[in-house]
Write a structure and sequence with these properties.
Layout lengths: L7 E10 L2 E11 L4 E6 L5 H8 L7 E6 L2 E3 L4 H7 L1 E4 L11 H5 L16 H14 L15 H14 L4 E5 L7 H16 L3 E5 L3 H7 L2 E6 L2 E7 L5 H9 L17 E10 L6 E6 L4 E5 L5 H9 L4 E8 L2 E3 L4 H6 L2 E4 L3 H5 L6 H13 L7 H14 L16 H13 L5 E5 L7 H16 L3 E5 L3 H7 L2 E6 L2 E7 L5 H9 L3
Parallel strand pairs: 3-8, 3-9, 6-7, 7-8, 13-18, 13-19, 16-17, 17-18
Antiparallel strand pairs: 1-2, 1-4, 4-5, 9-10, 11-12, 11-14, 14-15, 19-20
Helix pairs in contact: 5-6, 12-13, 12-14
The structure holds adenosine-5'-triphosphate and magnesium ion.
Subcellular location: Cell membrane
Main location: membrane
InterPro entries: AAA+_ATPase, ABC_carbohydrate_import_ATPase, ABC_transporter-like_ATP-bd, ABC_transporter-like_CS, P-loop_NTPase
């Protein structure tokens, strides 16, 4: 097909940030009604490229064509007027408002022209219609705060329909969703496609890309390597093209010697909960927490770490009872909590990597300054290199890193604390397949050095690939406990969904 068929065409797009060339001569065409997957390593330039399509960034040079006409997209309004909508990973809804109020936010319908009363009735009906069009049965009157992340995302998509979007761009929409929510999202994407809407879809989940995409474009170091039809691509080939080599193993599992009891939790009950939780984690046994999003795994970790208040229960670290009332207590007791929320709790985005890894750490360690700044800096540099953080320059501002690279910095930061018990919450969210392997290797070496490792993950292949023992949570309780050898996806899913 020629460029005449394109809905959106990019020709020779260049973009740099203070001398750092991030996009180099990108040519790309998006056809009406196709799902076009963008794939590339962390920092390859995917988010930057779509921000140029949505007017969040302006290109340095190159041309953009929309339905064969040359256009300039100088801001979000330009993109909206053309019919380009974006679903970012961080959703832009207002939690206190209802679904329909959010859908029409800023474009409210009025009864008699501009200055009259809001036409709530029509907005409700329209909202309902758009949601139905997506095959969704979400009430237009529901408050957004009462919806799960998956449903909120669907509200954002409904919002895109109200501007008659012809192109919807989704940047890692599935990364915070549970398996069933991902299914729903994929169904919705297929529905949009049927209606002739084009989708640009970014995800590090290769199987998902394979299922949903019509074509795939691969970026590497700011260059477009190739655009292929999905039919002629498999996950092996995707890896090969994005990393420039093949991966010998996705899960470098090691066998460890079972050691001492490291973390014991007895009868822990969170405030606002009636459920008690007990479990023990050992050295030499990576403990995985599986379950649906919302099963209470993150809440449990937050309770143990002193982020959220606990009503009752005891915590022992290497046999010694510890009283944890706040995160500082937890750090002092030798705990590390690598959170999934890199912006909220993980990083200070306006600061440098050095500040985030050393100063922020030392401040928290207070009296416990077993590592001095220089030593920590050297260590930080090592970890940044091992995790292939780009840019690996310790003086770079955290905000300027791509999403996946920020997540790697959060991991590096906690590795520098000398903790004895590590709780990882969705450690590889947003991290590309190649770098994931490095994260697993680091986790392995932590265990080899005697640390106790607990991993919360919603990705079953990850849980099965790296954990030695798996606890399944369901509605705030541990409902199953199995060794790796006894576990499989089906068994875990059964326990995770029992009674739901
Ligand atoms: N505002 C900015 N200032 C300076 N550099 C930036 C800025 N935004 C992005 N970059 C750099 O541009 C490059 C591409 O980043 P981008 O966010 O597009 O990557 P990505 O492909 O989306 O990666 P990920 O998979 O991790 O999300 C990175 O090297 C990043 O550090
Ligand atoms: Mg990105």
């Amino acid at each position: 097909m020629g460029e005449r068929d394109a809905l959106l065409e990019l020709r020779g797009i260049n973009k740099g940030f203070s001398g750092n060339q991030v996009l180099k001569e990108i040519h790309l065409d998006i056809r009406p009604g196709e799902v076009h997957v963008l794939l590339g390593e962390n920092g390859a330039g995917k988010s930057t490229l779509i921000k140029i399509m949505t007017g969040a960034y302006t290109k340095d040079s190159g041309d953009i064509f929309w339905e064969s006409n040359k256009v300039e997209i100088n801001g979000p309004v330009d993109a909206m007027n053309l019919g380009i909508a974006t679903i970012y990973q961080e959703l832009n809804l207002i939690p206190e408002l209802t679904v329909y109020e959010n859908i029409f936010l800023g474009r409210e319908l009025k009864k008699n022209g501009k200055y009259s009363l809001l036409d709530r009735k029509t907005m409700r009906l329209k909202a309902e219609e758009y949601l139905k069009q997506l095959g969704q049965d979400i009430s237009p009157d529901a408050k957004v705060s009462t919806l799960g992340i998956g449903q909120q995302q669907l509200v954002e998509i409904a919002k895109a329909l109200t501007i008659n979007a012809k192109l919807i761009i989704m940047d890692e929409p599935s990364s915070s969703l549970s398996e069933s929510e991902i299914e729903q999202l994929l169904t919705t994407v297929m529905e949009l496609r049927k209606q002739g809407i084009a989708i640009v879809y970014i995800s590090h989940k290769l199987e998902e890309n394979k299922r949903i995409g019509d074509r795939i474009s691969i970026l590497r170091d700011g260059r477009k390597i190739e655009t292929l039809s999905m039919a002629e691509t498999d996950t092996e080939k995707m890896i090969q093209l994005m990393v420039g080599r093949s991966l010998d193993e996705k899960y470098p599992k090691m066998n460890f010697q079972l050691g001492e009891e490291g973390l014991r939790v007895e009868g822990l009950r969170l405030k606002n909960s009636s459920k008690e939780i007990s479990f023990t984690a050992y050295q030499g046994q990576i403990l995985g927490f599986s379950g649906l999003v919302g099963a209470g795994r993150t809440e449990l970790a937050r309770g143990i770490f002193g982020v959220d208040p606990v009503a009752q229960g005891k915590v022992y670290v290497f046999g010694k009872e510890v009283k944890i009332k706040c995160p500082e207590d937890a750090i002092k007791a030798g705990l590390a909590f690598i959170t999934e929320d890199r912006k909220g709790e993980g990083l200070i985005l306006d600061q440098t990597l050095e500040f985030n890894i050393t100063i922020a750490n030392l401040k928290k360690l207070k009296k416990n300054k077993f590592l001095y700044k220089d030593k920590m800096k050297a260590l930080a540099n090592d970890y940044l290199k091992e995790l292939q953080v780009r840019p690996g320059d310790i003086t770079a501002q955290a905000r300027k890193l791509s999403g996946g690279n920020q997540q790697k910095v959060v991991i590096a930061k906690w590795l520098c604390t000398n903790a004895k018990v590590f709780i990882f919450d969705e450690p590889t969210r947003g991290i590309d397949v190649g770098a994931k392997v490095e994260v697993y290797r680091l986790i392995n070496s932590l265990v080899q050095d005697g640390a106790v490792v607990i991993i919360i993950s919603s990705e079953l292949p990850e849980i099965l690939g790296i954990c030695d023992r798996i606890l399944v949570m369901n509605e705030g309780q541990i409902v199953d406990d199995m060794l790796r050898e006894q576990a499989d996806q089906e068994k875990i899913m059964k326990s995770a969904t029992r009674g739901n």
